[in-house]
Amino acid sequence: MFERSRTTVGLDIGASSVKLVELEHGEGGVRVLHAAEKALEPETIVDGEIMDRALVVEAVRSLFDSRAAARRRVVVGVHGRGVIVKKIVMDRMSVQEAAEAIYWEAEQHVPYDIHDIALDFEILDVDKGPKQMQVLLVAAKRELILNLAEVVREAGLVLEAVDVNGFAAQNALERGAPAPGGEVSALLNIGADITNVNVVRDGVPLYTQDLSLGGHSYLQSIQKAYHLSREEVERALGQTPRRLDTTAQLEAFAADLSASLEKSLNCLRSSGEADQVGRIVLCGGGAQIGGLAAALGRLQGAPVTIGDPLLGLSREGAGAPGDELARSAPRFAVGVGLALRKERAS
Ligand SMILES: Nc1ncnc2c1ncn2[C@@H]1O[C@H](COP(=O)(O)OP(=O)(O)OP(=O)(O)O)[C@@H](O)[C@H]1O
Ligand SMILES: [Mg+2]
Q: What contacts 53, CB < 8 A, 6 or more positions away?
């Protein structure tokens, strides 16, 4: 009855920055104890893969050194080309049996050598046709996970679990603002290099894919158009009133994103699983690109909102991060979701 509160830490290692979120799970709910980020040099991480481990370790260390809390166990996320999420249908069997059979199934669905990948799965529907069940198969290149594990170890931390960024974003966004029953939502975590697309209904992923597209390509298109450095563009975008007219670049980025999303949705429609998307929810730094939500809404003909991962979380009490976190909340969706992952377990 007098359950002791416990804390969890999500560590989102992204291309533009490493973000840390520490949550306290108490009787009264979940409280944000700490949220911080440390920018990374360009090219430290490219397309979800760590290029310079020492720089990432340094960033993680500095995030942990700067906070008082002692928790060293962290949940990290993976995404990008090295991660494959697929819904498959296989013979109905127990979870224990499936844990073995999943390797044979994966060989047919994953374009990597089975020895080079780590596998996880979840049974979504035990009753999918005669003697069959539907399973969510998650495969990640072993190298991705080993690299992350090494970063965590070198930073003096302990790896508690590895999650998929798109699912972490879903956990964070849907916890505070669940979609109406039966409605299909497209959740987009728009990062610097990668956008995680996760189409869900009633909390269950219908289609999950990572696009090689993000805020970085938008910034680059502005750099090119105006012959500016990245820093100059970032500074100009932060100014009000705007010094640059970026309408053309915004429209082009929204069109790219919309076309990629359309491809994902077409896969879903052709499989007969869903036809109409009721809402699109954005998070990640790319969600903060001025005018993007409206432009995407026009192209998709569906309501587009910017999700708030802090909804339903308390931010009260000593040391709790305040307004600065609230302003950049969409960028912390994955970090929050990673920290929430352990909410139900243990
Ligand atoms: N106000 C803004 N205007 C335009 N772009 C912005 C703004 N704020 C953030 N961004 C974009 O968001 C990106 C960073 O987003 P985020 O922190 O979600 O990425 P990341 O997690 O580090 O990267 P990834 O997930 O791709 O590895 C930056 O590259 C920048 O392009
Ligand atoms: Mg990210």
A: 147, 150, 151, 154
